[in-house]
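Case study 2.
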Amino acid sequence: MMMNYTAPPDPQAYYEQVWKVARQIPHGKVATYGQIALLLPPPADISAEDYKAFAPRWVGNAMAACPPDVPWQRVINSQGKISERPGAGRQRQLLEEEGVVFLKDKVDLQKYGWGGPNVPPPPRQQTLF
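Prediction:
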């Protein structure tokens, strides 16, 4: 039976884990709420099914409450879009300043998506003249 978790059992501890992951997203890359959630272990006594259902929202709540050193702008929704809320325009502006290109209101997750921690960036293309 699926429970209705509006917040993780220990929100502060969970948020700290989220922020640790978000700090690893490189300049010019993005991650999704769900992607970050999958990088974290489910809290004790929460089924994998419940965690999968509620964790992306918990990540969003963590990002809304993050300290200034967390690159909050690099976390977007699974459609490659910025979620509608106050600050959405500023988020897009910050991402564009990092070189992230939007096609209409969407980021190409194949191009700008972060591979996760411990995944080396692809080699830079060398231009030959």
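The helical segments are 11-22, 33-39, 48-64, 88-97, 109-112.
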